[in-house]
Design goal:
CATH superfamily of the largest domain: Butyryl-CoA Dehydrogenase, subunit A, domain 3
Number of domains: 3
Number of helices: 12
Bound molecules: flavin-adenine dinucleotide
CATH architecture of the largest domain: Up-down Bundle
CATH topology of the largest domain: Butyryl-CoA Dehydrogenase, subunit A, domain 3
Distance between the termini: 33 Å
CATH class of the largest domain: Mainly Alpha
Length: about 375
């Protein structure tokens, strides 16, 4: 069982205060610009020791437990905008776990330390124009030339992609069939041949920049390989578990805010001579969604406890992200509906949350991929 201590509660307050002063007030500005200033924000977060909570103190991390990660993402999700929580999540729990677990000492000093210090922004680059759900279809190729990799290919939908100083790239390093032909390689984005093709215009998560990247004869040392050659697929699948859990934690924070704000609005809006909240249909619906959110939150806490015990959390991460995506879409649609016309206005948080929510059912593996993983884990198909 997950037990939050006084230290955890102090961290929660720290993150909440930080988000309320350094993120919340800039929501409209960053959403309109389609980007948040990652270097600036990460450097502020690093001063509060928030970018390497679970990482080894030898690299500037805090050596804290996974409940601290839960708190970080819940609180970032609670204050919003969700796009900023996503960009931070990529830095802390989506692009760096493999490096921390499998990277060499030299690689960690060169790339993990600046990421935790907030000096370097990073991305995880797996998806390609023709390879999303089926990671094994990816075509970006690294060919060995002496002590270097020469990389050619393209990556799509890369979060933090226009600002990243380095990417954790998944590339094909051999023609071995199956899962053994892929490796994870750190690619500094300043390397000649590495280019941001374009910044993508998205439905939601607008404060987070998302890019298409291309690699043309990009030369990086073979020593930039994370872990063992040919183990990239397995390492990325493990990294995806951190990603899926972080997405679910952040979604819970966002949904909690949405339900609270909606209840508050319904208390102040009089329709047919009484506050809307007095309609049983409305307050029952909020109560029901709140109960389901509680189930997800406590499922997340159980997942976190299993993670801390060092157990395999594949099933937990899969179920958590699947349910987070589905519940977020339902809650965002309901909150918008209960606000009436004003909820449909671009100036309202309801419109933003409605546009942001579908990403939890697509990014980090679509709902259907979660069902595919789950049906295999549970023995529903061969
Ligand atoms: C805002 C945003 C940020 C992202 N950030 C990153 C990032 O930082 N790094 C990165 O590498 N990627 C990132 N992605 C990409 C994301 O991981 C992929 O979009 C996702 O894995 C799905 O791949 P796809 O879009 O190619 O969909 P496809 O693989 O083309 O699938 C399309 C749809 O088909 C269905 N489907 C797929 N497989 C199955 C199946 N086996 N059975 C039944 N139905 C199926 C699903 O509904 C799926 O949504 C991001 C995406 C978004 C939207």
């Amino acid at each position: 069982m997950a037990v939050f201590t006084a230290e955890h509660n102090a961290l929660r307050k720290l993150v909440r205060d930080f988000a309320e002063t350094e993120i919340g007030p800039y929501t409209e500005e960053w959403e309109a610009k389609g980007i948040f200033p990652a270097h600036e924000l990460f450097s502020k977060m690093a001063k509060l020791d928030l970018l390497g909570l679970e990482y080894d103190t030898a690299y500037g991390g805090q050596g804290a437990d996974h409940l601290c990660t839960v708190i970080l993402h819940e609180e970032l999700g609670r204050v919003g905008p969700a796009g900023v929580a996503l960009g931070i999540g990529v830095q802390t729990d989506m692009a760096t776990p493999s490096l921390h677990h499998f990277g060499t000492e030299e690689l960690k000093q060169r790339y993990l330390v600046p990421a935790i210090k907030g000096d370097a922004v990073c991305s995880v680059a797996v998806t390609e124009p023709d390879a999303g759900s089926d990671v094994t279809a990816l075509r970006t190729r690294a060919v060995r030339d002496g002590d270097d990799w020469v990389i050619n290919g393209a990556k799509a939908y890369i979060t933090n992609g226009t600002q990243a100083d380095w990417v954790c790239l998944l590339a094909r390093t051999s023609d071995r069939p199956g899962y053994g032909g892929l490796s994870q390689i750190i690619v500094p984005t300043g390397t000649p041949g590495c280019q941001v093709q374009r910044k993508l215009d998205k439905l939601g998560m607008r404060s987070s920049d998302t890019a298409e990247l291309t690699f043309t004869d990009v030369r990086v040392p073979v020593s930039n390989t994370i872990g063992e050659l040919g183990q990239g697929f397995y390492q990325q699948m493990s990294q995806f578990q951190n990603e899926r859990l972080a997405l679910s934690y952040a979604a819970v924070g966002g949904m909690e805010t949405a339900l609270t704000r909606t209840a508050n609005y319904l208390k102040t809006r009089d329709v047919f001579g009484k506050p809307l909240i007095e309609n049983q249909h409305l307050n029952f619906t909020l109560a029901e969604l709140s109960a389901r959110l509680d189930l997800l939150r406590h499922y997340n806490y159980t997942a976190a406890a299993a993670y801390i015990r060092g157990e395999d959390v594949n099933r937990f991460a899969t179920v958590a992200k699947l349910e987070a995506g589905r519940l977020a879409r339902e809650i965002s649609a309901t909150c918008l509906q209960f606000h009436g016309a004003v909820g449909y206005m671009e100036e309202m948080w309801t419109a933003r949350f409605f546009r942001d929510s579908p990403v939890w059912s697509i990014g980090g593996g679509a709902d259907e991929v979660m069902l595919y993983v789950l049906s295999r884990l549970d023995g529903y198909h061969a």
